[in-house]
Design goal:
Strand order of the largest sheet: 2-1-3-4
Number of helices: 5
Helix content: 40-55%
Number of strands: 4
CATH architecture: 3-Layer(aba) Sandwich
Order of helices and strands: EHEHEHEHH
Structural class: alpha/beta
CATH topology: Rossmann fold
Number of domains: 1
CATH class: Alpha Beta
Bound molecules: 5-nitro-6-ribityl-amino-2,4(1H,3H)-pyrimidinedione
Amino acid sequence: MQASPRQISAPINAKGMKFAIVVSRFNALVTKELLGGALDAIERNGGSPADQLVVWAPGAFEIPIITRAVLEKGGYDAVIALGCVMAGETTHNDYIANEVTKGCGHLSLQYGVPVSFGVLTPNTLEQALNRAGLKMGNKGAEAALAAIEAVAAIRSIAAL
Ligand code: INI
């Protein structure tokens, strides 16, 4: 008989986990909803609000440098990056979206800490709101769930 593979499929349980949520103030109408979704997801999965840190960034472009400061300080199991880079009349938004994506990815690998990515890049306000709790779920909550699972998976691997 063939042996079945060993699998790690970490449960979503945020009990005792500490997250830093870095959220941009730009497009706050949307990002406040992403933040609410992330906090709600953490609490509904056993995390304590008292263990979480929320850091406001002026815009999505500043999310990586603030995330870096959090990672440098230490003490958090993961960072959850939340923002909304809205398409405009020029390609300005593309430059910002590229920088925040690249920056968060690099920092996560550099520090060995999950940086969950909940930065929307919608073409319209309607698309943004639909992804911030209206018709298409809440990307802030999704980013929080991904952070919880990533932390649990990393802990399970460490315990092998
Ligand atoms: N910041 C955002 O978070 N979303 C945007 O849509 C946006 N646009 O389109 O301009 C934006 N700009 C500000 C940027 O993130 C920086 O804060 C600013 O350039 C100063 O560095």
